[in-house]
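Lay summary. Proteins are chains of building blocks that fold into shapes, and those shapes determine what they do. In this project we predict the shape from the chain. Here is one chain we studied, written as its sequence of building blocks.
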Amino acid sequence: MLASIHDVGPRFEGEIDRLAELLERRLGTAGFAMLVVPDHWGRHPLSADRGFQTRLRGWADAGVEIFVHGWYHRDMADHRGLAAFKARHMTAGEGEFLGLDERQAAARMRQGKALIEDVIGREVAGFIAPAWLYGEGALAALRRCDFRLAEDHWRVWDARSDAVLARGPVVTWASRSPMRAASSLAFAALARHTLPVLPTVRVAVHPGDVTRPALLSSIDATLARFARTHAPARYAALQEP
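And here is the predicted shape, written in a compact code that computers can read:
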């Protein structure tokens, strides 16, 4: 079982604490990953918050895997065609890497990698685009930026060779509206019955999840169910022989 906390950074410190406590209770301190946003929406720079830097390094020292999760997380591109549909219906202005060209994507990836590795004192585990959305430019840049791992809604892959390491949907929750919350609760309930047949299951939580008790209960139930059949693992274990 691969579990992760998204949107980690100074903007959501209180929410991250609550989610980390929930995951630690079910999976142990080193049983999940954190996806770090270097400067959420251009308003909450990790580089300026020494206190959160110390906390992030402490999590990494304790065994939490750290991923680069975009730079701003905010999508400021003008989309057309299929990309416009994804930007409108699969996220609320958060798909930062959906519309970037290769040069822009590579610059943000490298800056994020350098910053976070300096903070945690070790190599990051990989790169995961905000909202799991990658445009062609982002995919091309990813192959050049020396990340080990990447992930989207349906798979985890080796970012250097493009080899797929795990397949299957990631179980996540939505808090933006009552309708989206209800839909995510229904999918999580279905996933608890159907996904344990897969060799690898994935769970991802977000800061907004703490705003709805029903979502937290569903997350806890999902972790408990998957833990009966799948041991908590590191993403890096997918690349081990």
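What the prediction tells us: The chain has a mean pLDDT of 92.
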